[in-house]
Amino acid sequence: MSDLNFSTTKKENAVTIDDDPFVIREASGGTAVEYHNMALNGVTFGADGKPTKMIGQASVQVLLVGKCLYRIDPKTELVSREPVGTTWVERNLPAKVMKALFKVAKDLSDLGEDQTEDDVKKEIKKLEDKLIEMETDSEGEPIDD
Asked: CB–CB of 108/13 below 8 Å?
């Protein structure tokens, strides 16, 4: 077995917004978890256990951009220790800018492809089928624990 070697240095890209310098960085592990949790919490399920709608999916964009975008002081060229935050993103960025920054942050963070509601429904169906398979024996009878 080979050794595993990792770097904790986050990938980043320089960004200019209205002539002000910023950097957009790869999400931390905690931000990635928060992003995934928010995306999954927005799924509403019907009485049959199947997803019926997705709510608040745009909020995941605000979250990820707000936690991955950092100001750069133009005089010192030092990157701020804290990201700009979600309130700043909501108040200052036009939708098309936020969407572009979201894609960059998501790609830098390797958080997967954009999923549509149909994609999520298919994924849930696949997982439901797998769970049924795990809970039943070869003859389709439930396995008692």
From this structure: yes
* Residue 57, pLDDT score: 65
Q: Where are the alpha helices (DSSP H) in the chain?
A: 29-41, 57-68, 86-92, 95-108, 117-135
Cβ-defined contacts of 123-130 (< 8 Å, 24+): 124/43, 124/50, 124/51, 125/50, 128/49
pTM: 0.69
Beta-sheet strand order (sheet of 20-25): 12-17, 20-25, 69-71
User: Cα–Cα–Cα angle for 106, 89, 19, nearest 5°?
Assistant: 95
CATH 3.30.2220 at 12-112, yes or no: yes
